[in-house]
Amino acid sequence: QIITLGLLATLPLAATALAQTPAASPAATTAAPAQDDPDAKAALYNKFREVVRTDQAQAYQIGKEYIQKYPNDTDQIATYIKGFITKYEAASRDQNCGKLIADKKWGEAFALCKQIANDKPDNLAANLNTSWAGFQLALSGNNGSNTEATNYSQKTIQLIESGKTLEEGK
């Protein structure tokens, strides 16, 4: 919901103009939309707008479809949808890291959390989660990640000593 609020604040004024575009004729809806068909493009964007506040997973899928169909667009709408996709993927990845840890899937958690820690090297939660997953891997007898886990643990300690808190990453 936080992502949605942030994205809604940047919703382009062009959305109003697109929302007023008439629906495609029945003949046009049965054929595959051409990439330059403005009615099909507007309909897909309107479909995205209808669900972005209530079903972000569905909005993500529609947004991906929009960008796939119109990959060369650089207007405000394409920029907005691309921003939504980026933020949704980042939030999903963070959520999945925590879920994998809660489910005690240490190998998967270590791999995913490590990606997050690499993308956010100064984020205490990302480094702590990676360290924890690596520690649990070692306790389960899987020592292949010990060196990396130790490095993330050291980074976690450095972040704590520098004053970083878990609240900063939220």
Brief overview:
The protein is mostly helical and 170 residues long. The protein is built from 9 helices and no strands. It has helices at 2-9, 14-19, 26-30, 38-51, 56-69, 76-102, 106-119, 124-139, 146-161.
Write the layout of secondary structure elements.
Blueprint: H1 2-9, H2 14-19, H3 26-30, H4 38-51, H5 56-69, H6 76-102, H7 106-119, H8 124-139, H9 146-161
Helix pairs in contact: 4-5, 5-6, 6-7, 6-8, 7-8, 8-9
Give structural notes.
The radius of gyration is 21 Å and the shape is elongated. It has 9 helices and no strands. It has 170 residues and is mainly α. It is 71% helix and 0% strand. The chain has helices at residues 2-9, 14-19, 26-30, 38-51, 56-69, 76-102, 106-119, 124-139, 146-161.
**Average predicted confidence as pLDDT:** 82
Cα end-to-end separation: 13 Å
Whole-angstrom Rg: 21 Å
Indicate the percent of residues in helices: over 70%
CA-based shape? elongated
Largest sheet: none
What descriptive keywords fit this protein?
170 residues; 9 helices
